[in-house]
Specification:
Strand content: 15-25%
Radius of gyration: 14 Å
Structural class: alpha+beta
Bound molecules: adenosine monophosphate, zinc ion
Distance between the termini: 29 Å
Shape: globular
Number of helices: 2
Helix content: 10-25%
Order of helices and strands: HEEEHEE
Length: 124
């Protein structure tokens, strides 16, 4: 990643705890700025979460100066993880839920990668 992210964690955030290793969660993939884990309640045969190591609550809270790095990093990491998991040949779905009406339950930005089987409906 060309643009360095400012480190940031939040003490009561479950994904910050996973990033810090305080809550165990095996990493499917990891880069300098992102981790990829398996969702604890999978909504498809394969359900990954791409999580920035820096705490950012949601898409609306991404600092403008860091947006290019975070946005590109989320998608590039999702593609890398999808390939690692063999989801590239048949396809997969990516979803970002934002705030309550978007269905966000963990308020640390993350991108869902769903696949491993044909997915019902057009959205999760
Ligand atoms: P969202 O509803 O978009 O905020 O997604 C949050 C996701 O995080 C849900 O799909 C949860 O199942 C998942 N989740 C919550 N806690 C954990 C955990 N400890 N490890 C892995 N996934 C989790
Ligand atoms: Zn966090």
């Amino acid at each position: 990643m060309t643009q360095k992210m400012t480190p940031s964690t939040k003490s009561d955030c479950i994904f910050c705890k996973i990033v810090a290793g305080e809550i165990p969660s095996p990493r499917v993939h990891e880069s300098e700025d992102f981790i990829v884990i398996r969702d604890i309640q999978p909504q498809a045969k394969k359900h990954l979460l791409v999580i920035p190591k820096k705490h950012v609550a949601n898409l609306l809270e991404v600092p403008t100066s860091e947006a290019p790095g975070i946005h590109a990093g989320l998608l590039a990491t999702a593609v890398a993880a999808a390939k690692l998991e063999g989801m590239d040949s048949q396809g997969f779905r990516t979803v970002i839920n934002t705030r309550d009406w978007g269905g966000q339950t963990v308020h640390h930005l993350h991108l869902h990668v769903l696949g491993g089987e044909p997915l019902a409906g057009r959205f999760a």
